[in-house]
């Protein structure tokens, strides 16, 4: 499929996530063979040495916000512009009695409705690929972090190992959209997932954008043969 242009991407992304909300978590775990939980654990762990409030951007159904709070009691503001995803996550939080430290907020990550220098930590899992304008989003995150604040960014990347990368691409483009399309009822949403991974920036490009946004000590760690990459940076 042709990826949506910047002007139409927000509406497209909002609609697609609203459409798959009830099946989102189940499919995430199924399609990643439950490794997605480990990826979020690694992401949340990057903030271990930095207590204080955290912004979890593109928080969706709140799996990463919950992991951050599970590791250490702290306040998390969980922001997403898809109301259905947030509401689904909030209902599960209530059922699990985990509401105390997580505040879901519906808003745009590229125009954060938040004061500057508020958070000591920032997390985002599988969100930056969905932003219409990544440099703008990164600049906003940098603005709301306090000096010394740490950013932990998890995103899909493209494995480069020969044979494995071919197998992975076959799975991503041929198997995943069909399987996830049948379960969720929205095949286009999972074609978008595959094509947006294929069309996303390289690891070096993401690091360079983080630096341009003002982050220092920027580095990246590929996980699970490079299926995903964990980026980190600090606000000086
Ligand atoms: C793949 S989901 C990730 C959910 C969650 N972080 C996780 O670990 O599963 C991506 C989320 O990004 C949100 N999103 C995309 N662009 C956004 C924006 N500009 N502002 C806020 N949320 C956005 C979507 O609504 C969606 O819920």
Draw up the topology in text.
Layout lengths: L5 H26 L3 H11 L8 E4 L5 H9 L4 E5 L2 H14 L5 E5 L12 E7 L8 H11 E12 L7 H21 L2 H13 L3 H10 L2 E9 L4 E8 L1
What is the gist of this entry?
Helices cover 49% and strands 21% of the residues. The protein has 236 residues and is of the alpha/beta class.
List low-pLDDT spans: none
Separation, N- and C-terminal Cα atoms: 40 Å
Q: How confident is the prediction overall: mean pLDDT? A: 97
Number of domains: 1
Highest-level CATH class: Alpha Beta
From the helix content, strand content and strand pairing, which structural class follows? alpha/beta
Number of helices: 8
Helix content: 40-55%
CATH-assigned homologous superfamily: Vaccinia Virus protein VP39
Major pleated sheet = 7 strands, mixed
**Which sequence of SSEs, written as H and E, runs from N to C?**
HHEHEHEEHEHHHEE
Overall, the morphology is: globular
Q: Which CATH architecture would you pick?
A: 3-Layer(aba) Sandwich
What is the fold named in CATH at topology level? Rossmann fold
* Cofactors, ions, other ligands: S-adenosylmethionine
User: Order of strands across the biggest sheet?
Assistant: 3-2-1-4-5-7-6
List key phrases describing it.
alpha/beta; 236 residues; Rossmann fold; 8 helices; 21% strand; binds S-adenosylmethionine
Description:
- With 236 residues, the protein is an alpha/beta fold.
- It has one domain (6-235): Rossmann fold (3-Layer(aba) Sandwich).
- It has helices at residues 6-31, 35-45, 63-71, 83-96, 134-144, 164-184, 187-199, 203-212, and strands spanning 54-57, 76-80, 102-106, 119-125, 145-156, 215-223, 228-235.
- It has a seven-stranded mixed β-sheet with strand order 3-2-1-4-5-7-6, sandwiched between helices.
- β2, α4 and β3 (102-106) form a beta-alpha-beta unit.
- The mean pLDDT is 97.
- Bound molecules: S-adenosylmethionine (SAM).
- S-adenosylmethionine binds at residues 10, 13-14, 17, 28, 58-60, 63-64, 80-82, 85, 108-110, 125-127, 130-131.
């Amino acid at each position: 499929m042709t990826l949506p242009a910047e002007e139409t991407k927000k509406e497209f992304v909002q609609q697609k996530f609203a459409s798959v909300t009830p099946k989102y978590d189940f499919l995430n775990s199924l399609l990643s063979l439950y490794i997605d939980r480990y990826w979020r654990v690694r992401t949340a762990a990057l903030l271990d040495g930095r207590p204080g409030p955290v912004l979890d951007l593109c928080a969706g159904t709140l799996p990463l916000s919950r992991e951050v709070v599970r590791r250490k009691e702290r306040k998390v503001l969980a922001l997403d512009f898809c109301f259905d995803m947030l509401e689904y996550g909030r209902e599960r939080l209530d059922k699990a009695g985990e509401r105390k430290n997580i505040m879901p907020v519906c808003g745009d990550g590229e125009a954060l409705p938040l004061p500057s220098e508020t958070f000591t930590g920032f997390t985002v899992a599988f969100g930056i690929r969905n932003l219409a304008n990544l440099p703008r989003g990164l600049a906003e995150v940098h603005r709301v972090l306090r000096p010394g604040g740490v950013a932990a960014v998890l995103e899909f990347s493209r494995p480069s190992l020969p044979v494995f990368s071919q197998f992975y691409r076959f799975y991503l483009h041929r198997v995943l959209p069909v399987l996830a399309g049948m379960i969720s009822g929205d095949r286009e949403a999972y074609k978008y997932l595959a094509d947006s991974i294929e069309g996303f920036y390289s690891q070096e490009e993401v690091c360079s954008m983080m630096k341009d946004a003002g982050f220092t000590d920027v580095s990246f760690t590929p996980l699970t043969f490079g299926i995903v990459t964990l980026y980190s940076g600090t606000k000086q």
